[in-house]
Amino acid sequence: MSQTADPVRAAALRLLWEVLEERRLLPEVTARIVAPLDPPDRARAQRLATGTLRWMDRADRALGPFLRMKPWPGVHNALRLALYEIYVDGAAPHGAVSAAVDLVRTMERGQSQAGLANGVLRNVIRKGDWEALPLPRLPKWLRKPLVADYGKDTVAAMEAAFARGAPIDLTVKSDPEGWAERLGGQVLPTGSVRLPGAPQVTALPGYVDGRWWVQDAAAALPVRLLAPAPGERVLDFCAAPGGKTLQLAAAGAEVTALDISEGRMGRVRENLDRCNLRAELVVADALDYRPDRAYDAVLLDAPCSATGTIRRHPDLPYAKTGEEFPALFGLQERLIDRALACLRPGGRLVFCTCSLLVDEGEEQVRDALARHPGLTVDRAAAELPGLAPDSIGAEGGLRVRPDAWPDLGGMDGFYMVSLRVPAEGGTAGTP
Ligand SMILES: C[S@@+](CC[C@H](N)C(=O)[O-])C[C@H]1O[C@@H](n2cnc3c(N)ncnc32)[C@H](O)[C@@H]1O
User: Which residues participate directly in catalysis (predicted)?
Assistant: First the structure.
């Protein structure tokens, strides 16, 4: 890019390149790419990149009739960005087109395509059918298995939720009504507080003194399912960055928080300090963990495809291809077995993933029950208030989806289940 290109849009284009061409996730690359910008411009570059990814499928449909050949990817992304700015972000068409043309001119491989960019964008605007185009669809590699599991209509509803993006939810230590009133938010049916708009959370009352933490309403449910009692020994087996550790500690449990990543564990420590809560922290591979004393309960929030979080991570369907996931399914299975081995007789394991794939939810449970005679599902634990009764599956786990609560703004996709090892004589806890 030359010095004359708008640095914010140029940074957004570099983020798009990393996702679409290098197949990197935004959190891996964003800090480096936006570092030269001022903080407000960093936020804007990120917003432009995530917004463009969220609406990219529709932008491609709008561009399709006017592109005889696929342009060079940098140019293609500049066109997509301009359409996002005009039709979703509310930018004036003239300014967004001229900014896109300027960006294309500064690209080594795009210079000759500046005229094309200008013409194509003007044609799309002249045709004016943006609003009539279908809502953005997921790429085929992900859409296909989801349609097989949930059906076309449900997948379309989930895609509508992905296009809407995600509000900010808080888990409060106490008094959700009071905090909702103070922050201008609303208490959700499951007890989280949803904020209006997209405020800078660190500047809000209650952040510095740790009265609440940011956690999607769906991500707050697994600990409600586990229902920790004060003084219970609970192992949070994949803990970082610590949203669920905070919930467990706030409920008065004696928590051991374990994670393989030292860097991410630093965030658990910071979060606990800010919220004035305590937990024992262990940096280790969960698969190697052999506790001195068994636990009353284990929470296993396993590494997964994260396909339930696409509302906030629209880069995911484009950075991934699905080929990465079977290795995760195998890891989840081994983590479940190790987690069960850390329980006292009669103890419970809450297994959860922020995934929409049944391989990372219902199927894991069926397989675990087959591997561990005597292991049972506590179906009653999944009967949480505020959720549709059909959220509980035949196997007794709770499945929440992004298209839930359409009037309130949805929630992340999550799967969770409470498994209980036999009180005596069973083998479920000993691998
Ligand atoms: C879904 S995230 C956990 C989110 C966390 N429970 C929360 O609520 O904030 C999964 C975590 O698993 C950790 N992880 C992955 N493989 C692991 C392993 N073999 N042992 C321990 N932790 C692991 C990752 O570092 C990551 O922090």
Answer: 354 (nucleophile)
